């Protein structure tokens, strides 16, 4: 069932178009990610959903109800701020109780719900502390507790892990995903970090220049990107430019290169994208000279320079490198491992 | 040890200036309070507690109470006027912020005495305010505005209002707007968000502003002298009169000591509450 329906939302700030007709449907109970580089409009979209910004055009429906004229404080949507925005003058428990007090709930009920959520986020011992006395990961859990204690229809998370160090981040990602299963709230996470989006989200919308490039689950997004931007933004890819044909890509420099049919009409301009781990170093359509080899334990990264090409072709090999710089190698891939994408 | 040395290098000049030119004279004058007055003024160096018991004479106590009342009313009005002003300035576009802040301190470029005389021109029976009121037919007879306690409050308020606005402005300007968005997101209407987030977070500045206004107000003797009609309306006048008119230095010193003691207590309360509030912020 569709919980949130965003259609044709536009927003400009002066000359800058932040959102250029964005349409998205988000399902009930889904863990959805808005992924894009900074300036892609994802934060503006989040602020429109929370009610801090208004769209110039377009509608946002929550369970079929138009949100456009609903002020921020009346929306059944809660946001976990990137900075957490915890109230420094209130204790942890006070921060969490704040939203419940605004609902004019009875004191015993507030106490009980605060205690429950503190237990859930594992901060029962810290109820009386101030936010400043907590670590980054603890603050994030308070911010999250403050949002979920309201039992919102939709929980927005703005760059949830950007302020955390790498190790804590991985823990929190796992924990957040478990939590989402437990509470069953629909999560929309905004992030520029593809790993974060890929590891947590059920579906991801990739945004670029205020428009949606592709909406798909992480595996599809990685394996079958539809645009050059998505193929480039998510993971590493080798690109070749040319025209789409029935069996691949016709390039001016390398002739016909094999690829499976993608989202591109035959005869139109396209890019062929092939992942480094899909390229083999024996035989195939191209040949080149090994420029550089680096060993990363489980995998070796090989850069191969190919005539007529500005950027080297990247190849990942399992285990230790089996080639050395200066070697002449062939470059090949199976047609089903390369995909054609729109420019 | 080196750090202590460095600190004193920086502190030294200012500290020296204050010690030699303020603390020492002040301590000297205040020490007069334990001595007796000479027959023709001056001092007799014989210790006595008489000056302190005179403090509780209703005649003087009344003046102290009146002073506290007038300074208190001034402080309260300054807060009620200053808070919205400071808040409004933070909402201005950057260019107008500068203009507003300059306008706020502009009166300080003119001598305080001259500005207080201007209030006589405004409030006198033939002054601007009465002229305007009679001109519009609102009143038949000019009102007696001058030489009353409200005139003193008006003068003090005018003089010290910027001292309330500036610390409040600094605090409100630093306020994180995201906290208000968080409040709205959690269901607080704008008025509730202000009362539950903005105001409590500005409390240290409120206390600072109140002290900044109250302290010079209670010690002021120029405004009550000029706008209060030369009666010994406030403790500042009383101190001045003891030194210059009654030639009773010991009792003048005792009164001054009483005021200083009161202010020290007040500043201690302010420092304590500021630290408590700040401690909650970054403990």
Automatic annotation (TrEMBL), chain A:
Entry-linked Gene3D superfamilies: 2.40.50.100, P-loop containing nucleotide triphosphate hydrolases (3.40.50.300)
SMART domains in alphabetical order: AAA
Residue intervals of the ABC transporter domain: 4-234
Alphabetic keyword roster: ATP-binding, Nucleotide-binding, Transport
PROSITE patterns, A to Z: ABC_TRANSPORTER_1 (PS00211), ABC_TRANSPORTER_2 (PS50893)
GO MF, one example: ATP binding
UniProt entry tagged with the keyword Lipid biosynthesis: no
Family matches, as InterPro entries: AAA+_ATPase, ABC_SmlMolc_Importer, ABC_transporter-like_ATP-bd, ABC_transporter-like_CS, Mo/tungstate-bd_C_term_dom, P-loop_NTPase, Transp-assoc_OB_typ2
Name of the featured protein: ABC transporter ATP-binding protein
TrEMBL record, chain B:
One Pfam family per UniProt: BPD_transp_1
Keyword Aminoacyl-tRNA synthetase part of the UniProt annotation: no
Topology within the bilayer: Multi-pass membrane protein
Transmembrane feature ranges: 12-35, 63-86, 98-120, 151-172, 193-215, 249-269
InterPro entries registered for this protein in UniProt: MetI-like, MetI-like_sf
Keyword Transmembrane: yes
Subcellular location: Cell membrane
Domain ABC transmembrane type-1 span(s) in chain numbering: 64-272
Swiss-Prot/TrEMBL keywords: Cell membrane, Membrane, Transmembrane, Transmembrane helix, Transport
Protein family: Belongs to the binding-protein-dependent transport system permease family. CysTW subfamily.
Protein name as annotated: ABC transporter permease
Organism: Paractinoplanes ovalisporus
Lineage: Bacteria, Bacillati, Actinomycetota, Actinomycetes, Micromonosporales
